[in-house]
Each structure stands twice: as C-alpha cells, then as structure tokens.
Amino acid sequence: MEPSAWGNRTTVTEFILLGLTGNVGLQPILFAVFLFAYVITVGGNFSILAAIFVEPKLHTPMYYFLGNLSLLDIGCITVTVPPMLACLLAHQCRVPYAACISQLFFFHLLAGVDCHLLTAMAYDRYLAICQPLTYSTRMSREVQGALVGICCTISFINALTHTVAVSVLDFCGPNVVNHFYCDLPPLFQLSCSSIHLNGQLLFVGATFMGVIPMILISVSYAHVAAAVLRIRSAEGRKKAFSTCGSHLTVVCIFYGTGFFSYMRLGSVSASDKDKGIGILNTILSPMLNPVIYSLRNPDVQGALKRVLTGKRPPA
Q: Between helices 97-130 and 212-229, what is the axis angle to 10°?
C-alpha cells in the first residue's frame, strides 16, 4: 500500500488472494486437479467447436449458439483458472490492483454473455418446436448474428458499469481477499467507502442479467412443453425433450450457482462457501457443458468420433 494522492490515507495497490486453501501440503494436489479440469474443459469445448465445424448436420442455429457457448466457456475458465494455478505454484497470490479489476471486468463480460446466450438458445428451441413453419426465416443467419451481438452489448454495458463502480471505491486496507479470483462480493467487503450504490447496481444488474433472462427462458419452455405434449409420436416427444433437457440442465447449473453467489451480499461469513460456489460457476459448469450437450446427442457424438479419428463426414 502507498499514500493516497488525495490525503493521508493509504491506497491499496495490490490484493492478496487467499485462494482455496492455506495448507501448503494440499496445494500441489489442488494444482494437479484444477490443471486436469482446465485441460479437459478447454479440450472438450474445442472438440465441440471442431465437431460443429466439420459436421454439415450441425450447421444449424442451435449449434451456432452452442459453438458460441463453448467459446464463452473457454474464456470464462481461462480468466480464472490459469492465474489460480500460478498462485498455487508460487504458494502466494499477490495481484496488482489493475489486474484484479481487469479480471473482474472480463469475468462479468463473459459470464454475462453466457446468461443472455442461454436465453437466445431457449428462444431458438421455442421457434423450432412451436413455430416450425416460419423457423428458417425467423432464425436466419442475420437474426442469429443480431442476437449474439445484443447479448455481447448488454453484457459489456453491465460489466463496464460494475467495473467503473468498483474502481471508484476506496480501498485503504486490509487488502486480503478470501477468494481465488477477484469478484464483486469479496471486494465489497474490503471497501473503506460506502457500497450502497454498488449494491443497487448489482441488484439492477441481477435483474437484467438474471431475473429477466430466467423469465424469458421459463416462458419459452412453458410453450415448448405444451407443444411437445401435443406430439402424438412417443419418439418425437423423446427427441424434443432430449434436446431441451440438455439446455435446461445447463441453465439450472449456471443460474443456480450465479444467484447463490450474488444475492447474499450481507453475509460476510459465507466467503468460504462462496469459494465452493465459485468452483461450480467457473470450473464445473464449463467442464460439464460439452458432456451434457453430447451425452444424448447422436449427431454430436458421430461428429466427435469423426474429429478424433480424422474421418470425413458422409457426403
């Protein structure tokens, strides 16, 4: 810490992240576990991207969005896990103030796009199942690109707003963050100034990034469920529920952990629990997504086999 230019108070120039554990004996084990998880996650999501690229059957709007989701998962886990691995190797984690704020921005940018992309995927399933005759025109390439652009724009505004709001807070000590990456709740606990505005911004952000998307997803799937139950063929119902079930599983994991993390700002003692939720949100969810989307999907499974064996798709 160094003296502030605005007075006698000291200003934090770096944060010390406590990480997952202070037990030096456990750190090599955690390093191996999370390095394995990172490699599996990046490899799995790149495999999904490769499968979508090489398989003509997967050149559809649903897999266009899934490809973007895989890119976001790679980005989210890369923002948090490699710095954590470096800290485990060094047995300490001193993060410069600017690096901490940057990590905060990129994490919320990528996670925010994830939120709205899941909503776009639900809308895609609604059009495909409930409006099949107009699906191809209402979900054209232009519409797909526009939806992804809207997701990115909303998330950028949200992430920039929170980052600027945090950057104007006073951090005059202590500078120890009880987490393994820089995030809003643990930084709020260290602020010397009022976080009332930040709490209000977080509430508004949670509404636009969480509540509204969840309402839209719920409405879309209510229509989908009603339409699927009207399908007479048992095989048709099974196929429709299979594709929607994968998406709903990802939605439940992502939003469940997200709401748990950000709706309990008043609970200072919950920081250790937040580390577990952070692992679910930043590591487990991106790692499971390729498994969830490919487990019951023969088209993706076939494309993955061709990617791994080097065979060309059938003409």
A: 20
Contacts of 122 (CB under 8 A, 6+ apart): 216, 217, 220, 221, 247, 251
Q: Which residue has the higher pLDDT, 304 or 269?
A: 304
> What is the DSSP track for 210-265?
IIHHHHHHHHHHHHHHHHHHT---HHHHHHHHHHHHHHHHHHHHHHHHHHHHHS-T
Alpha-helical regions (H) of the chain: 27-54, 61-90, 97-130, 135-138, 141-167, 184-188, 196-206, 212-229, 234-262, 271-279, 285-295, 298-309
What confidence tens digit (pLDDT) does each residue in 127-176 have? Answer: 998 888 999 999 999 999 999 999 999 999 999 999 999 999 988 878 88
What is the arithmetic mean of pLDDT over 227-246?
Answer: 75
CATH class of 14-309: mainly alpha
Q: Count the alpha carbons within 13 Å of 78 in the hemisphere toward its beta carbon.
A: 11
- Considering only CA atoms, which of 198, 203, 178, 181 is closest in space to residue 190? 178
CA dihedral 40, 46, 47, 52 (to 10 degrees): 150
Cβ pair 297, 51 in contact under 8 A: no
HSE-up of residue 141 (Cα within 13 Å, Cβ side): 1
What does the domain layout of the chain look like in residue ranges? 14-309
